[in-house]
């Protein structure tokens, strides 16, 4: 993502702006997790690896914070997550 909101905010309604901000924040955090974990896997330096993995873990916490807020603002998102979790459980138990 590299520090650019992936949605044209001017075209988002006032009722949806907070949801779009939260989604963009989640995308940014996921991007950061991927970047830090990839860099950690590339380095041979154990100290650098440990710090990168610790920072990646913190980003996962941020994802959880933004996700919790998004679930408050978007009931449909919450319903679809629950449906997806049930679907995944059914598939994995086969």
TrEMBL record:
Its main location: other. InterPro entries: Encapsulin_nc, Ferritin-like_SF, Rr_diiron-bd_dom. Residues 20-83 form the Rubrerythrin diiron-binding domain. GO terms for cellular component: encapsulin nanocompartment. The keyword Transit peptide does not apply. Gene3D superfamilies: 6.10.140.1960. Pfam families: Rubrerythrin. Keywords: Encapsulin nanocompartment. It is found in: Encapsulin nanocompartment. This is Ferritin-like di-iron-carboxylate protein. It comes from Methanosarcina barkeri 3.
């Amino acid at each position: 993502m590299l520090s650019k909101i992936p949605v044209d905010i001017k075209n988002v309604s006032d009722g949806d702006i907070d949801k779009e901000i939260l989604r963009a924040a989640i995308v940014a955090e996921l991007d950061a997790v991927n970047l830090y974990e990839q860099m950690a896997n590339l380095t041979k330096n154990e100290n650098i690896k440990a710090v990168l993995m610790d920072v990646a873990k913190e980003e996962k916490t941020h994802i959880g914070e933004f996700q919790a807020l998004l679930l408050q603002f978007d009931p449909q998102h919450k319903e679809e997550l629950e449906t997806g979790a049930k679907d995944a459980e059914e598939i994995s138990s086969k």
